[in-house]
Amino acid sequence: MADLLTIGELAARSGVATSALRFYEERGLITSERTGARHRRYPRAVIRRVAFIVFAQKIGLTLAEIRAELDKLPADRAPKRRDWSRLSETWSQRIDARIAELERLKAGLSECIGCGCLSLDRCKLANPGDRAGLAGPGPRFWVGESQPAT
Predict the structure, then answer these.
(1) What is 4-95's CATH number?
(2) pTM
(3) How far is the CA of 94 from the CAs of 61, 100, 114, in angstroms?
């Protein structure tokens, strides 16, 4: 067990809270061994998996997607550059799509003056297709009406 890390050591090395590490383990994203006293011990290769999880979350992968990706990695050794490269092939497209979406949102903000009326026919963020305008004039949502489903 000399080459294994405690949960505190893994947290310090990865920069991830121990509660998050326990959560990742509960979700099957990482694994640990247990000592006789039932303390968690993690192989050093788990540091790379945790780094992968953090990165994958930042680019928008869900935990289910992250688990599916991690399942493609070898369980008996630390992943090599080739393994990571294979996983990240489709990520450039996903990152580009996310950047484009954020740019569209940013451009849409310049048309909104933040008045709260939410019935502008050109408001693409809060009122696409002027759904609120169908209910009548004025700030419909400010007077207690619920927003129509998108």
Answers:
(1) 1.10.1660.10
(2) 0.64
(3) 9, 10, 30
